[in-house]
Amino acid sequence: MAPNPLLINNSGWRRLSVGVIGGGIGGMSVAIALRRAGHDVTIYEKSDFAGEVGASVSCAANGTRWLHEWGVDVAKGDPVVLKKLINRDWKTGEPVSVYDLDDYEKRWGYVYNMFHRQYMHAMLKDSALGEDGEGQPARLIVNHRCRDIDLATNTITFENGAVSQHDLIVGADGIGSAVRGIIGIRPEKKPSDSSCLHANVDTEEAVRLGLVDYSQDSALEYWGGQEGKWDKIVLSPCNGGKLLSYYCFFPGRKGIIRRRPGGRRHLAIGKEIQPWRLWVHEPYPYLQQGSICLLGDAGHPMMPHQSQGACMAIEDAAALGILFDKKYFNGDVAQSLAVYEEVRLPRVTRVQAAAAKAAYNINERIGFSFNKDIPTYKVEDTKKVLTIEEMNAYDMYKDVEEKLAAKRGISYTDKYICGLPVGLELPSGITIGA
After folding, report:
1. Are residues 181 and 210 both part of a single domain?
2. Which residue of 147, 168, 216, 407 has the smallest Cβ count within 10 Å?
3. How many domains are there within the chain?
4. CA-to-CA distance for 308 and 11, rounded, in angstroms?
5. pLDDT band at 427 (very low <50, low <70, confident <90, very high)
6. What is the pLDDT of residues 274-300, one digit of tens each?
7. What's 303's domain CATH number?
């Protein structure tokens, strides 16, 4: 096998001082990735994490693979390994569309995990800050809210008056990102046509009251969403099945769900009930400027209906970890961030668009998009649906190498296009490279 020209004479690597603004799931993930790549990472979090209410977080194989590659102790997150996606009839509760995940790990190499957000965060925080693992442990500084960044000197000024300077700055500060505005992005956004309430239900309490033990299904379960309507309930188990996390979607200008789906009695014992305001953001024109980049919701907020928000943040972190690794980083931060944008922006934009469609048509959701034989199946464009193959057959190393080769004027000969193998046949009828 011929040597990879990208890895030859790549002697410009240097250790960077990295400032990560935001200590959530995305911030902790990028701290792990860049720590492992050999860099000195400091995380600045605006809060002290006290008083947060947790919901469930989906982590499909395209996110789980990086947790394993980074050496994260996944068991600390107490996940539920999903076995099915189940869409039920709103009135009868009978399954309408089921996507079986029995062969999921065999096909894709990793399981589909469902975490409780606080447990997942603690798991990632341990990997980012702990002594175990590759590289120097990251540092976490709390109660530091970013006020401004001098783009010429990479100096961050915080609202408490503190300042710090770094070679690379990662804005992982969420949907209300300060960093995004500092680098000149003004979101084009509008309120979603749907609203959401979230509630947690203790499985033990539900069983004690004689209610259905949905934890036994180990499934993401949906009521409604088949008829082009906004009313929909989503149930995801987490904490090893001890907690059931409910998301209740309903038309934004109307009251809470009035019809009577199967999970209604569970919701009567819900706790930590929180409204979730949903916004639809148009894709941003760029993700980086100079030595600053955006990650996760700061760079590509999306509707939750593809269950890919956390995975996209984890993939962002993985891309930065690869690009700034000793194998690929030649010392040019701006070049590496330009490639980061070329790798990430098309993929996250694709998922954003698919998530917006799945908001009102569950057949557009990854998994259900494959179940074409059910009577109610209808999608906007069969050739544009997002499929499990597109998400999980993706090889980020190949995508990075293809884009990096073009940037450095090197011939790229591997049989991949944007990280997908040439010849891959998608259920949508598309063949990669055809």
Report:
1. no
2. 216
3. 2
4. 36
5. confident
6. 888 888 999 999 999 999 999 999 999
7. 3.50.50.60
- The answer to the question of residue 318 being in a domain is yes
How far apart CA 28 and CA 65 sit, in angstroms, is 16
**How far, in Å, are 292, 320, 338, 358 from residue 345 at the CA level?**
15, 13, 11, 20
Q: Are 140 and 18 in contact (CB under 8 A)?
A: no
In which domain, by residue range, is 231 found? 190-280
CA 331 to chain centre: 28
Give yes or no: residues 171 and 304 share one domain: yes
Give the Cα separation of 351 and 307 in Å (integer).
Answer: 10
The radius of gyration computed from the CA coordinates of the chain, to the nearest angstrom, equals 22
Which residue's structure tokens are 């030649």? 330
Is 98 part of any domain?
Answer: no
Verify that 23 and 130 share a domain, yes or no.
yes
Please count the other Cβ atoms lying within 10 Å of the Cβ belonging to residue 4. Answer: 16
Q: How many CB atoms lie within 10 A of CB 425?
A: 11
Report the DSSP pairing between strands 80-81 and 56-59.
unpaired
Determine how many CB atoms are found less than 10 A away from the CB of residue 411.
7
Of 392, 390, 387, give the one whose Cα is nearest residue 372: 387
Element containing residue 74 per DSSP (H, E):
none
Q: Give the model's confidence band at 262: pLDDT under 50 very low, under 70 low, under 90 confident, else very high.
A: low
Number of H helices, E strands in the chain: 11, 23
Same domain membership, residue 303 and residue 236? no
> What does DSSP say about strands 40-44 and 17-21: parallel, antiparallel, or unpaired?
parallel
**Cβ proximity of 376 and 226 under 8 Å:** yes
